[in-house]
Amino acid sequence: MNVLSIQSHVAYGHVGNASAVFPMQRLGVEVWPIHTVQFSNHTGYGSWKGRVFDGPAIEELVEGIAERGVLDRCDGVLSGYMGSADIGNAILSAVARVRALNPQALYCCDPVIGDVGRGIFVRPGIPEFMREQAVPAADIITPNQFELDYLSGRRTETLSDVKRAVSDVQELGPRAVLVTSVEAQETPAGTIDLVAGEGGRFWRVRTPKLSLSINGAGDAIASLFFVHYARSGSAATALAEASASVYGLLKRTEEAGSREILTIAAQDEFVSPTHRFTPEEV
């Protein structure tokens, strides 16, 4: 399996491609990473060095890969943080090029917009681009609950609200949706839910809520869900595998008291998770 992964990157730590690429590689996927930004570290530290690239820079790299004559072997495109609308256009152009050569290729969009407590944290124009262009072009999306609310125009407080919002978003185009960090009225204290929807059916995985605030977990679970979905063709299977791996990864990170997610030290969680959760159809 070959995946073109177009998203942010940091030199130190693990967010964006620095969080998504290695888990896919550990699962035996050949990954072709293109960075939309390259920073010294993630912005949660409050200061960083580096720059945001532009659309033409992304298109130039895609063209270089195309010149190798391998785009027809690309099985999917994964995108995350975009940085600007012109980068978004370059990503969708890459998706179109890949699909023209391989109609079976999948596009997984992690619609990075914002989060509960932080609100929208991307540049102006990006949320609208996600809702109006990127999400309709995607086969799979992996929003958190805040992003699901934005994309659907709903306020999700119950599981029924989440299911309706997922159905609304699926009408835009994606066939499979993974919603992360779900805290509905039905979610017991001390737990967190993940909900996947496909073909009018919904599954939930409930895990213990860990006491850590870490960057990069969403990037990791998007990549894992994408790979497992592409291989199995099942949102329920992809939910089970991705949730197990990411919970184990975060549990190891919490136990170590690490400021950065332990992508390398806990790499066995990607292939042999130490905790398993059975998806419940809801």
Count of helical regions: 8
Contiguous runs where pLDDT drops below 50 for at least 5 residues: none
Secondary structural class = alpha/beta
Residue-averaged pLDDT: 96
**Which term fits the overall shape?**
globular
The amount of beta strand, in percent, is 15-25%
Report on the structure:
The chain is of the alpha/beta class. The chain contains 8 helices and 12 strands. The strands form 2 sheets. Strands 3-2-1-4-5-8-9-10-11-12 form a 10-stranded mixed sheet, with helices on both faces. Helix 3 (85-101) links the parallel strand 4 (76-79) and strand 5. It is globular. The relative contact order is 0.13.
What order do the helices and strands come in, and which of them pair?
Blueprint: E1 2-10, H1 17-26, E2 30-39, E3 50-52, H2 55-67, E4 76-79, H3 85-101, E5 106-109, E6 114-115, E7 119-120, H4 126-137, E8 140-141, H5 145-152, H6 159-170, E9 176-182, E10 191-198, E11 201-208, H7 217-232, H8 235-256, E12 280-281
Parallel strand pairs: 1-2, 1-4, 4-5, 5-8, 8-9
Antiparallel strand pairs: 2-3, 6-7, 9-10, 10-11, 11-12
Helix pairs in contact: 1-7, 2-3, 5-6, 7-8
